[in-house]
Amino acid sequence: MHFFKFNSEKLRITSLIIRASKLFLLIILSVSCLSLTTTVHRSVIFVYDGDTILLDGGDIVRYIGIDTPEIDHKKRKHEFMAQAARDFNIKMVKGARVKIEVDRERKDRYGRRLAYVFLQNGDMVNAILVRKGLAHVMLKAPNIKYKAQLLDCQREAMKERLGIWSRSPAAGEKYYLGNKNSFRFHRPNCPFGSKVSKNTIVRFQSRYEAFWEGYSPCKKCRP
């Protein structure tokens, strides 16, 4: 009889421990999920270019999900619409107090904070730049929370031929190769494009079509 009572008590204690462990794990997961969507308000004290800013406290922020034309600070050989993108970004955020929202990854390989930036009226700066044709969508998993919104903005800008889309498409390759995992597209002879597996490869007839589907150009072959 004592043996059965002992085992019953042991099972009850074990059950309590398991339930407590599950509750603790649930709390940890909840806190983690909250931290992924944490938003903070900060002041913008400097604008480097169309998609990079400096916040009070010294944090450099790179806008997630987009890429603006490059500014060459040394040789001043800027890409088409690069200066316009920077000027517009300055007008929107310099000296302003903005809301910073993170996604799954908090920093890039250069140590910059990755974020969606929102104005006081709730508008997303990342999306505004894309909608004005001053940036193109540049997706990188797992930071794809606003993929649909950004892609909608890009398609509208493309249809209206705004900013970077105002130039007539230059003659390019006969086709381009896209990678479904990286959301990048390549020239047919690109070494990175040739390594894309058959299961993840997609073929585009033009750069325009690739951009329309949310793919961005490879930094190596620069299609």
General description of the model:
By secondary structure, the protein is of the alpha+beta class. The chain has three domains: 36 residues; 126 residues, OB fold (Dihydrolipoamide Acetyltransferase, E2P); 50 residues, no CATH class. The chain contains five helices and eleven strands. The strands form three sheets. The protein has a five-stranded mixed barrel with strand order 1-2-3-6-5. A hairpin with a 4-residue loop joins β8 and β9. α3 runs parallel beside α4. It is globular. 29% of the residues are buried.
Compact description:
This protein is an alpha+beta fold and 223 residues long. It has helices spanning 2-36, 82-93, 125-131, 147-159, 207-212, and strands spanning 39-47, 52-55, 60-63, 66-67, 97-101, 113-118, 136-137, 176-179, 184-186, 201-204, 216-217. It has 5 helices and 11 strands.
Topology record:
Layout: H1 2-36, E1 39-47, E2 52-55, E3 60-63, E4 66-67, H2 82-93, E5 97-101, E6 113-118, H3 125-131, E7 136-137, H4 147-159, E8 176-179, E9 184-186, E10 201-204, H5 207-212, E11 216-217
Parallel strand pairs: 3-6, 9-11
Antiparallel strand pairs: 1-2, 1-5, 2-3, 4-7, 5-6, 8-9, 8-10
Helix pairs in contact: 3-4
Q: Mean pLDDT, as a whole number?
A: 87
Low-confidence stretches: 27-37
Q: Tally the beta strands.
A: 11
Write out the strand line-up for the largest beta sheet, numbering strands in chain order.
Answer: 1-2-3-6-5
> SSE order in H/E notation?
HEEEEHEEHEHEEEHE
Secondary-structure-based class equals alpha+beta
